[in-house]
Amino acid sequence: MVIQTMWKDRLSFSCLEGEAGRATLARISRLAGMGCGLLRFAVPDLAAADALGALAGMTPMPLVADIHFDYKIALRCLDFLIAKIRINPGNIGSRDKVEKVLSKAALKKAPIRIGVNAGSLPADLRPRVDSGELGRARALVMAAERELAVFGEFGFEDVLVSMKASSAAETIRANRLLAGNSGTGGPAPPLHIGVTEAGPLIAGVARNAAALCALLSGGIGDTIRVSLSDSMENEVIAGREILALARELAASCPADSSANSGNTHAGAGILREYKEDPRPAATIISCPRCGRNSFDTHGFTARWLNRLYALKKRCTIAVMGCAVNGPEEARHADLGITGAGGKVLIFLRGKVVRTVDAARADEAFAEELEKL
After folding, report:
1. Cα(370)–Cα(356) distance, rounded to whole angstroms?
2. Is pLDDT above 90 for 280?
3. How many CA atoms lie within 13 A of 179 on its CB side?
4. Measured torsion, CA atoms of residues 286, 292, 296, 300, in degrees rounded to the nearest 10
5. What span, in angstroms and rounded, lies between the C-alpha atoms of 366 and 285?
6. Which of 132, 174, 201, 342 has the largest CB neighbor count within 10 A?
């Protein structure tokens, strides 16, 4: 199971040079440390394709080129060490253009993701959906099956499919339909799953959790992205938490999981066969803050979240708002921090071990974290 995210800004050669280049590579390295296994970039023109190709030679992170409208951009990306090409059958162009992309991808041994979105369905399907003649989930599946059939005619099998809508229910329905019937007479292809245009942090996580847990706990899905109007880091964090939750659901309701799964792909049992435990190494517990608050839990958590999710050692970290309840309520935590007046208390399994000035909170916490 691979978690992916998407670079939020336009990529150009200026992003790869000097201090900006070092910052770009450092951020990619941080994403990898947090659990991101695949990073997708929008490639709107040939200049962006060249920049992505240069970046692919600078980082071990597998990079995906996201192509719309112009098949020539896909062809250019395939000149580089790109891990995967994503095309949208609703706008990539005619059959002969698709054939050219497939031919070069086969030559370069590069997989392709057929990415179908509810907002960019093929032109003949859109009015049928708008009129209510055809359900949007079924239209997503039809668009994917058409493209799979074309890929099959050209003998191209290294393919992944995604069908995304902004509705969790339609996303679930479409993926279950294709998982149960690939429309090609063979087993269903690997599926990349997620909710598109899911919204800001809270709404987006809620919608993705609803859709992805329903699919993953039923054995459907091989790669995921939690699409958020928020940072890449938060997309990766949400993905890890959702994977862990789906795994728990699959383990607690095995009968339901089997009933919901129509996917005959080898990845159908993925929730029982993770190569690595998807849970974050650090379990973070924090109080929501109240009138007793004497420690900025929100600010401290925001500063430390990415680093804690990159930990490899399993531990529980508590960030509590006051000394009244902090150590006692979080006494099971391996390491915790809270505040009292202008002081910060650091505790191990409920026992206060250090008291320092608030200005030294991060420094002291880092020292104790290093000791764990």
Report:
1. 17
2. no
3. 30
4. -20
5. 17
6. 174
Q: How far is CA 199 from CA 20, 139, 202, 232, 331, in A?
A: 29, 23, 8, 14, 36
Query: In what order do the strands lie in the sheet containing 351-357?
Result: 282-286, 315-319, 335-340, 343-348, 351-357
Of 283, 281, 282, 254, which is closest to residue 269 (Cα–Cα)?
254
User: Using CA atoms, how far apart are residues 306 and 309, in angstroms rounded to an integer?
Assistant: 5
* CA count, 13 A, side-chain hemisphere, 316: 13
Mean per-residue pLDDT, 282-311: 82
Which tokens go with 26?
Answer: 């450092």
Q: What would the pLDDT profile of 145-177 be if each residue is shown by its tens digit?
A: 998 998 999 999 999 999 999 889 999 999 999
Token couple for 147: 């493209």
